[in-house]
Design a protein that fits this description.
This is Slipin family protein. The chain is of the alpha+beta class. The chain is built from eight helices and eight strands, in the order αβββββββααααβααα. The protein has helices spanning 2-21, 95-100, 105-121, 126-131, 133-148, 167-209, 211-224, 239-251, and strands spanning 22-25, 29-35, 38-43, 46-49, 55-61, 65-75, 81-92, 153-164. Strands 3-2-5 form a three-stranded antiparallel β-sheet. A three-stranded antiparallel β-sheet has the order 6-7-8. The chain has a two-stranded antiparallel ribbon with strand order 1-4. Helix 3 packs across helix 5 (133-148) and helix 6 (167-209) packs across helix 7. The N and C termini lie far apart (155 Å). The model has no long low-confidence stretch (mean pLDDT 81).
Length: 252
């Protein structure tokens, strides 16, 4: 009986030693190995052999991590308060730095993304925040990537998801857009009137230089109103036309 208990205890000990000695890392994983508390090397993927008690290993995932940045209260440069949230895409390039240089790289990157989001967007006005998101995304990504480089982390992309405004600001933006549309309509109408007046002036100058053209224009006008149902038509005759008729009578 005692022999059986000893055998079972030995078997459990061997299993525990095997579990502490053999580790399997997937293709996207790396192991940061410490020997007696000091960094030794980065291992993986595949089967990893460790010396129990002497060596310890920390797993690091090298896949792209999608981090949701919670809504942040941002005051823009034109003193408008908005709530902005974003999504961050990053991955670990150097497992050694990610484990040794920072206590928790996930938490550190999340906190840094929140503060950077407020700092960068606070330098811009509301119109830029609404209309130039692509440029702001690049600015935030570059700032984050520069600061996380010491942690062995590469920030691949940052996307602003939502910009929440209060009701009064939404109404103000709607009024501004309506006023802008009215202004454009008035400008287009004024430009049309200007072009029409220029064409009329050119036509008047041409008719003034050629009396025959003036007579032809009057004849066309008479022809166009010939079908009018009015019983009486008062049509002014230009002096030039009367002179032309007088000259024809004198010659005959």
């Amino acid at each position: 009986m005692g022999l059986q208990i000893g055998f079972v205890a030995l078997l459990l000990l061997l299993i525990a030693l095997a579990g502490a000695t053999f580790r399997i890392l997937r293709e996207y994983e790396r192991g940061v190995v410490f020997q007696l508390g000091r960094f030794w090397q980065v291992k993986g993927p595949g089967l990893i052999l460790l010396i129990p008690v002497i060596q310890q290993m920390v797993r690091v995932d090298l896949r792209t991590i999608v981090l949701d940045v919670p809504p942040q209260d941002v005051i823009t440069r034109d003193n408008v308060s908005v709530k902005v949230n974003a999504v961050l895409y990053f991955r670990v390039l150097d497992p050694q730095k990610a484990i040794i240089q920072v206590e928790d790289f996930l938490m550190a990157t999340s906190q840094l993304a929140q503060t950077t989001l407020r700092a960068v967007l606070g330098k811009h006005e509301l119109d830029e925040l609404l209309a130039e998101r692509e440029r702001l995304n690049i600015d935030i990504q570059q700032v984050l990537d520069a600061q996380t480089d010491a942690w062995g982390i590469k920030v691949a992309n940052v996307e602003i998801k939502h910009v929440d405004l209060n009701e009064s600001m939404i109404r103000a933006i709607a009024r501004q857009a309506e006023a802008e549309r009215e202004r454009r309509a008035k400008v287009i109408h004024a430009e049309g009137e200007l072009q029409a007046s220029e064409k009329l002036m050119q036509a008047a100058e041409m008719l003034g230089r050629q009396p025959g053209a003036m007579q032809l224009r009057y004849m066309q006008t008479l022809s166009s109103i010939a079908g009018d149902k009015s019983s009486t038509i008062v049509f002014p005759l230009p002096i030039e036309l009367l002179k032309g008729m007088a000259d024809l009578s004198a010659k005959s």
